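queue> holo job accepted (iron/sulfur cluster)
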Amino acid sequence: MISFLRLRPQELCEALLRGRFFDSLSARSPEGSGAFFALDQNICSSYNGEKREGGSGVELLDKLTILADAAKYDAACTSSGLDRSARPGGLGSTLAAGCCHTFSADGRCVTLLKVLMTNRCMYDCAYCVNRRSNDLPRAAFTPRELAELTIAFYRRNYIEGLFLSSAVWGGPDRTTEGMIEALRLLREEYGFYGYIHAKAIPGADPLLTRRLGMLADRLSVNIELPSEESLNRLCPDKEKGAILAPMAQIRDGIRESRGELAKYRHAPRFAPAGQSTQMIIGATPESDRHILTLTQALYDKYKLKRVFYSAYMPVSDSALLPAPRDFKPPLLREHRLYQADWLLRFYHFRAEELLDDGAPNFDPRVDPKCSWALRHLDFFPVEVNRADYETLLRVPGIGVRSARRILTARRVGPLTFSGLKTLGVVLKRAQYFLTCSGKMLEGLRVNPDGVLRHLVALERPALAGQEPEQLSLFAPAEREGTA
Ligand code: SF4
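queue> job finished
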């Protein structure tokens, strides 16, 4: 599989144009396909067959360059958790194994065609590169252009699905209508059954959001900032209520859809891969504790599949934001929050356990689980031959899989430290927090400072080297690794 990030969109588009892919696609398109929904009359009202031949390809290339680059700041995409097979005559499929995505080193999903419908925006969010007041090239896809690009990329195995977001142009309803039309074309005309993640636009008519959810696999509504106060300060056109309302609608729609599917096998599916959100980290002063508490509330109340964190990239010299000159995107903080998020979702931790008023932010030197363990040494050591699953999950170095293996393996006989290694336990971490048949690892001395020093030393190689750097979608290929 060719990773999307390894090919520059410009190169992709040029190759596709050279291969006259529009001709082959046009053969599938109905007559009169020039009558598309136009997000902006000046930019995309006249896209048709002749213009493609006569130079509109360059225009499309420009659009792709602008709109794929503009989408790189949105982290809220993943395709896990959905299983749907291809149908005869259709294209694409999704896999429950979640293998239709890869992530760049900074956690961004890259095998979906990740693009904006338009970067023209009527709003002026201070932290956003697409804000109304920013002077930058603007573009908009027509729904047909977007559908054709997606299919062309898919056929060449560059992508496995689509992540479609948009700035708000002409109002939330009009923006959503454009996205709906693009997805309708993909699903109904091109028979595309691959994964689609679409961004729901706050403030759009609930009927439009519903229609979008019937076409997409996953919906997301970006919460943007971790507090209402920050939202009011940096996004004067947005309201907390307008963001939470579609989240609640999507939650209810998913629940109803699952109920109907239980009764009728062919009932239409609404956002079957659930919903997610994204929040920006480091642009505003909220602590990790505040962010994690909000995350937990979102999981509990709105049943989100994922909360994505996006380290703030300085794209504005607004006095409301950190000064760009000395500001480094808090990528390590973002990483720690992802680790803590993992603990909430799979390790049965609660936000208030991980951080409190005395320690409102994570220690950047060690991962949040080690940090918690060092502050709760009275909980340890855990006897590995007797501890229940939940207790084992709290031991640094023991993951979900190794905890399950321990439960299975100890039915046969008592476990030893060497046996734990073969079960996948990371003993370098776990050794300080475990006993086997009542004994610590031979020769090991435990004092809090020494354990902290050792755990920090274990993490140092991963954190050493050059300063964390935000990858550019258009950086040279040799700099663009994927995990
Ligand atoms: S609504 Fe705000 S965050 Fe979204 S594209 Fe427009 S300016 Fe950016």
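queue> The chain has a mean pLDDT of 81.
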